[in-house]
């Protein structure tokens, strides 16, 4: 199925489109985690992402978020030409609903003030990205991380564990672990967590094709936690997810530290741990690791 918006033909994003879409994403390496190809294609079943390219230069991604009957778009990517700006403003004015641009960063607003002046700008706190120094999360040095260190020490002394990179041999085990954790956490009544599970399952099943990296922790040879991460830009790695069996005390703190240690060894200065999606517990957990920046993600509402 193809969708038409702005007189462009939008095509549902698929893994096979990687070579067409990713080069434009990488023209200006993303500041927000949602703009990696892996994120877009793994969340396609939730947001119905479709893409089109304007004059071979600007990538426009449309989305139909849950509970929204109309299609909206993400921040335009690639070379955002004056012609593309004028086309979007003209076509948006013709729509019979107020269109929204989701996932807009500070840089875009500052660089295109004339274009963004046609929108009401709202800060979407639940989708701000938490940025940390890789060294902070890998070493957990200082008094502020004392509780984290103590909990990890208890975990290390309680279990016989190993941490190794995710390889093809253990991907099926990670998929089974994801299902086990979802059942134990009883996520069926939380749509946000159900959506995340769909995206993670897709990522694990296409791990190699999406150029993902990850870590699996085993206790007595049994997988009990895993993480998935990738390069976001030249100095930042993006941790898409960390999942752990809660019956093992301190396992979330351990997988966090071990993943950060590998990312630091790879030469990254920062770690993007993505958003809290307005979940109080997740927000508290992310804040407890003392981010050096909470990078805003704005929504732009077109002024009709």
Taking pLDDT < 50 over at least 5 consecutive residues as the criterion, the unreliable ranges are: none
Mean pLDDT: 94
Q: Report the sheet-strand fraction.
A: 25-35%
Total domains: 2
Number of helices: 12
Q: What is the name of the CATH superfamily of the largest domain? A: Gcn5-related N-acetyltransferase (GNAT)
**Secondary-structure element series:** EEHHHEEEEHEHHEEHHEHHEEEHEHEE
Could you give the distance between the termini?
A: 29 Å
Largest sheet: 9 strands, mixed
> How many DSSP-defined strands?
16
Oligomeric state of shown chains: single chain
CATH top level of the largest domain is Alpha Beta
Structural class per helix/strand content?
Answer: alpha+beta
Computed CA radius of gyration, to the nearest angstrom:
20 Å
Helix content bin: 25-40%
**Large-scale geometry:** elongated
CATH architecture of the largest domain: 3-Layer(aba) Sandwich
- At the fold tier of CATH, the topology name of the largest domain is Aminopeptidase
Entry keywords:
304 residues; alpha+beta; Aminopeptidase; 2 domains; 9-stranded mixed sheet; 16 strands; 37% helix; elongated
Give a structural overview:
It contains twelve helices and 16 strands. It is of the alpha+beta class. It has two domains: 3-128, Gcn5-related N-acetyltransferase (GNAT) (Aminopeptidase), CATH 3.40.630; 129-274, 3-Layer(aba) Sandwich (Aminopeptidase), CATH 3.40.630.30. Strands 1, 2, 3, 4, 5, 6, 7, 8 and 16 form a nine-stranded mixed beta sheet that branches. It has a seven-stranded mixed beta sheet with strand order 10-11-12-13-14-9-15, sandwiched between helices. α9 runs antiparallel to α10 (191-205). The longest helix is centred in the middle third of the chain and has 15 residues, at 171-185. The radius of gyration is 20 Å and the shape is elongated. The model has no long low-confidence stretch (mean pLDDT 94).
């Amino acid at each position: 199925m193809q969708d038409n918006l702005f007189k462009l033909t939008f095509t549902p994003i698929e893994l096979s489109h990687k070579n067409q879409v990713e080069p434009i994403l990488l023209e200006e390496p993303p500041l927000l985690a949602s703009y990696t190809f892996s994120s877009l294609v793994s969340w396609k079943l939730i947001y119905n992402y479709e893409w089109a390219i304007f004059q071979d230069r600007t990538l426009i991604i449309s989305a139909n978020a849950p509970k929204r009957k109309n299609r909206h778009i993400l921040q335009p990517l690639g070379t955002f030409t004056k012609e593309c700006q004028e086309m979007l403003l003209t076509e948006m004015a013709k729509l019979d609903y107020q269109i929204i641009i989701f996932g807009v960063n500070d840089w875009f607003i500052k660089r295109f003030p004339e274009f963004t002046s046609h929108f009401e700008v709202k800060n979407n706190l639940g989708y701000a990205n938490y940025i940390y120094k890789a060294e902070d999360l890998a070493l957990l040095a200082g008094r502020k991380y004392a509780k984290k260190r103590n909990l990890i020490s208890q975990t290390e002394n309680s279990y016989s564990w190993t941490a190794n990179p995710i390889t093809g041999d253990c991907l099926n085990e990670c998929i089974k672990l994801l299902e086990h954790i979802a059942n134990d956490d009883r996520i069926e009544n939380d749509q946000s967590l159900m959506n995340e599970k769909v995206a993670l399952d897709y990522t694990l099943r296409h791990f190699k094709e999406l150029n993902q990296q990850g870590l699996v922790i085993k206790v007595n040879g049994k997988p009990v936690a895993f993480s998935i991460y990738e390069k976001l830009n030249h100095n930042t790695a993006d941790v898409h997810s960390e999942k752990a069996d809660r019956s093992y005390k301190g396992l979330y703190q351990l997988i966090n530290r071990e993943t950060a240690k590998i990312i630091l060894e790879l030469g990254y200065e920062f770690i993007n741990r993505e958003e809290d999606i307005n979940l109080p517990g997740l927000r508290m957990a992310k804040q407890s690791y003392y981010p050096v920046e909470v990078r805003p993600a704005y929504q732009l509402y077109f002024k009709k």
